[in-house]
Amino acid sequence: MKESNSRREFLSQSGKMVTAAALFGTSVPLAHAAVAGTLNCEANNTMKITDPHYYLDNVLLETGFDYENGVAVQTRTARQTVEIQDGKIV
């Protein structure tokens, strides 16, 4: 990307990269099991999700943008529960 990108161009390119990463990442779903009292995820806490239907709680998602003079200046986010069925967000 060129150095003089506007915020809108940056967000657009970032969104495309995140979407591509999400699509390629759905082939092998992994999750980290939380261990009480730890703040980091270790490789031995990784497990494979084999159930075709599951929920992800407390996921931080973009819900929209705040605009000033018709230009997006800030992203609004909210914590949501995401439902996954057969590798797709429902």
Question: If you had to describe this structure to a student in words, what would you say it looks like?
Answer:
- By secondary structure, the protein is of the alpha+beta class.
- The protein has one domain (7-89).
- Helix content is 21%, strand content 43%.
- The chain is built from one helix and five strands; from the N terminus they run H-E-E-E-E-E.
- The protein has one helix at residues 7-25; strands at residues 30-32, 46-48, 53-68, 71-85, 88-89.
- Strands 3-4-5 form a three-stranded antiparallel beta sheet, with no helix packed on it. The protein has a two-stranded antiparallel sheet with strand order 1-2.
- It is elongated, with a radius of gyration of 17 Å.
- The two termini are 33 Å apart.
- The model has no long low-confidence stretch (mean pLDDT 77).
- Keywords: Signal.
- It comes from Escherichia coli.
- Residues 1-33 form the signal peptide.
- This is Deaminase.
Give the SSE layout:
Blueprint: H1 7-25, E1 30-32, E2 46-48, E3 53-68, E4 71-85, E5 88-89
Antiparallel strand pairs: 1-2, 3-4, 4-5
- Unreliable sequence segments: none
The backbone outline, from C-alpha atoms, is elongated
The strand line-up of the biggest sheet is: 3-4-5
Q: How big is the Rg?
A: 17 Å
| Mean pLDDT value | 77
Amino- and carboxy-terminal Cα gap: 33 Å
Total strands: the figure is 5
Compute the number of helices: 1
Helix percent reads 10-25%
Number of domains: 1
The helix-and-strand class reads alpha+beta
Features:
1 helix, 90 residues, alpha+beta, three-stranded antiparallel β-sheet, two-stranded antiparallel ribbon
